[in-house]
């Protein structure tokens, strides 16, 4: 099982392989474009909710006359629009596209995939309206009302089956690194979601078991769903764009199994100090610290894969986003391991530091890598290059600077907040007032992210409208997968 074959879908320039990949792209084009459009729509909707929540954090009277715009409802709507709307739709678009290409198996009966996608977004829309209406469950990451979740579960089941079927009917016996991550995530997410819904919403467990289940689910949505999908995308696109195999397949396998073994336990460390069995908390702390292993392994593998080609990385719009995300993965994971230590947790717990940590993982790591995946995938699906390199520049710099400002502001302000909360001589109201400058910086960063998202959406809309005319005029083309357009 190697990634170095000359006919590997990672790096082959063969005309026959390019023709085969083009046929696969055509088979999944309509489904992938539907999920991309849905993802970008939810990204913009979630951005609006994010701005409202950010402003209300330091200006509580802002839009206070509208009951559906209270902070609790707006923040929950933002979280679910971004996680289930943007996150899952873009995973369905990029993840299934990569799986189909690596399996070298065209997608059949894509109409069912589209129907499942439509019902997923209908269910999510019903859920978001339910949150704004006040039917919120008050369980973080599971705020969607109970009447919308069965539709989401059934829709996901139909969508996830396609990735499994593609793998089942793949050509050849090679199992690529990206397939390990994507296939595992397709199994992990429904397992996490169904268990959490059952034990917290549908047939609630008693006492602290609900809290343990909640943090087990919330933490693993990032670690066993968003993380493997993002890493699978990075492992596919880094060698694809650079035209060289990944540095070490065996390091990749080590990183995968270390992630699978340790991350499942890590979320419990958020309950340090709670009425939880000591052995369970200790297991969570040990697992969180052991997460250093897959993080270092992935970091080495990514770095050694691009060593000597840093100029090419910087010139590529795809790799610029992916490398930013890969570096963020290392930083956010090491920070998370440190936060599991009791001496650090007693400062960061119940503060904005944890919020900054979440944004660091979900946006700086996952979202930036998926942006890079879209920048590579869309030209292959539409057979044309991006219409505006300037919009790509705006998107990258606004997103990179915006999320950096947000993470630094929230984690710096959160650390100060934690120290002051642990000081009995400082009144709590004074601590709250001292966080306001950092929260205002967060709002400024939100405006910058909004600019980047608008530039991204405009470029996609421009490309979609122009693609039909260009394709009709020029006829079908085969893009060289070892080359990347839109260089900025």
Features:
Four Helix Bundle (Hemerythrin (Met), subunit A); 15 helices; Cytochrome C Oxidase, Chain A; single chain; 488 residues; 2 domains
* Annotated CATH homologous superfamily of the largest domain: Cytochrome c oxidase-like, subunit I domain
Counting DSSP E segments of at least 2 residues, the number of strands comes to 0
Which CATH C-level class of the largest domain is it?
A: Mainly Alpha
Helix content: over 70%
Task: Give me the CATH fold name of the largest domain.
Answer: Cytochrome C Oxidase, Chain A
Unreliable spans: 1-7
From the helix content, strand content and strand pairing, which structural class follows? mainly alpha
The overall pLDDT average reads 91
Cα-to-Cα separation, first versus last residue: 35 Å
- Structurally, the number of domains stands at 2
Sketch the major β-sheet. none
Gyration radius (Cα, Å) is 22 Å
User: What global shape is seen?
Assistant: globular
Strand content: under 5%
Compressed to H and E, one letter per element, the order equals: HHHHHHHHHHHHHHH
Q: If helices are DSSP runs of H or I spanning 4 or more residues, what is the number of helices?
A: 15
Query: In CATH terms, what is the architecture of the largest domain?
Result: Up-down Bundle
Protein name: Cbb3-type cytochrome c oxidase subunit I
Keywords: Electron transport, Membrane, Respiratory chain, Transmembrane, Transmembrane helix, Transport
InterPro entries: Cyt_c_oxase-like_su1_dom, Cyt_c_oxase-like_su1_sf, Cyt_C_Oxase_1
Organism: Coraliomargarita algicola
